[in-house]
Amino acid sequence: MTLPYQTQTTGEGGPGFGAVRRVLVVDDSRMQRRILSVTLARAGYEVVEAASGAEALEIAARLVPDLILSDWMMPGMDGLDFCRALRTQMLGRYVYFILLTSRTEINDVAEGLQSGADDFLTKPVNGQELRARIAAGERILRMERELNEKNRLVSSTLDALQSLYDSLDRDLIEARKLQQSLVRERHRSFGNAEVSLLLRPSGHVGGDLVGFFPINARRVGLFSIDVSGHGITSALMTARLAGLLSGTSPEQNIVLVQSDFGIYEARPPAEVAAHLNRLLLEEIATESYFTLLYADVDLISGRVSMVQAGHPHPVIQRACGRIDQLGAGGLPVGLLAEAEYQGFTARLHPGDRLLLASDGITEAADAEGVQLGEDGLARLMTRNAGRSGPGFLEAMVRDLEAFTGGEFADDVSAVFFEFHGAKENAG
C-alpha cells in the first residue's frame, strides 16, 4: 500500500536545481511509515510508502525517488539487501539512502555503509533530527546533480569539439592532398641534368614549398621556400607562392619576363627576392614571411645564379666528394621593406650535385636536443653520395629519421639537382 503526501512548498528541499521532492519510506510497520510520512509531508515533501524491499524496488523503478528512508530489519528483504539491490537497479541516477535502525555498534554502521547506505537514523526517530538529516542529504544530492550537469555540459562540449575536430581533420586531409598537388612533378630529367623534389609536412599541411620551372630551352629555375609558422595560414601562403612561381603558367610566373619576340627571359635572382618582398609587404599584406633559395641554372654551362634570403645555405657536392656551402644568409622575404638582396654565382661541373634544403633538415634534433646542423647535413650527403635522383632524397629522409628517432618537428623539404654535363642539341 502507498500513501503519497504532497504540498506546494518544500522547505529546505524547495524548488531549485537538485531539490529533494520525493521521499520513499520503506518499513514493514504501517504505523512507523505513517509517522514518518506525516512528518515529511508537513515539511513539504512528496512522500511515497512501501511495506517491503521488493515493493520499494518496484516503486523506485517507476517513480525514481530522490531520497529513501528504509528500516534495517524487515522480513524477506532487509534494509541492507534492499540498498544493495537499489544501487544495482538505479545505475545512472543517485538516490540518497538513510537506514533506520536501533543498532548503534560501529561494526553495524560499517556494514551499512559498505552496503551502500549514506546515513543512519536511530529509532525512535526524532522529527527535528529527521529533517536535519534529509536537509544534509539534499545538499549532497544538489552537489551531485550539479556535478552531473556540469559533466553533461563538458561531455556535450567535448562531443561538439570532437565533431568539429573530425570535420577539420577531414578538411585538413583534403588540404594536404591539395598542397601535395602543388608539387605535381617530383622528378624530371633534362637530358644531361635532372632534378628531384622532396616535400614532407610535419603535420597535415605545412609551410614548405619546393619546385622548378623551365626558363627557356637551356635554363631552369629551382626554388625552396619555408613560410613562417605552421598550419593553414602557412599552407595558404605556399599555395599563393606556387602560383607566382608556376611552371605551367609562365605568364603568371613573376620570375619570367617575355621579350618582344615572345621569348621568356628571367629576372636576376636578387631582383626576384626583392620583387617578392615588395609584393608580400604591399599587396598581400600578411604578417607571414618566408625564407627563400632561388637558383637559375644553365643546363649547358653549369653556371648557377642564386639568391639566399634567410634560408639554409645551398650545398654543392662535388664529383670528387667535397662539400661546398655557399651564400651569406640574407634577410627573409616579407620581413622588412628596406631589405636588400645580393645574388651570387657558382659553377657546376659534370658529376656535381646541388642541394637546396629547408631548415627542417638542418634543425632536426636527436633525443638530446642536438641539431643535425650543416655539418651533419654534409655527413648525410657524403654517406649517400652513391645514390641519385629520388633514391638519394629517400635515403636522406631515412637517415634523418634514424637521427631524430622518427619524429620531425618541422616540415622537411629539398630540391636536389644533378648536373651530368653540357646539354646536347640545346636550342
TrEMBL record:
It comes from the Bacteria. Keywords: Hydrolase, Phosphoprotein. This is Response regulator receiver domain/protein phosphatase 2C domain-containing protein. GO terms for molecular function: phosphatase activity. GO terms for biological process: phosphorelay signal transduction system. CDD domains: REC_OmpR. Pfam families: Response_reg, SpoIIE. PANTHER family: STAGE II SPORULATION PROTEIN E, STAGE II SPORULATION PROTEIN E-RELATED. The modification 4-aspartylphosphate is found at residue 71. InterPro entries: Bact_Sigma-Reg, CheY-like_superfamily, PPM-type-like_dom_sf, PPM-type_phosphatase-like_dom, Sig_transdc_resp-reg_receiver. Residues 22-138 form the Response regulatory domain.
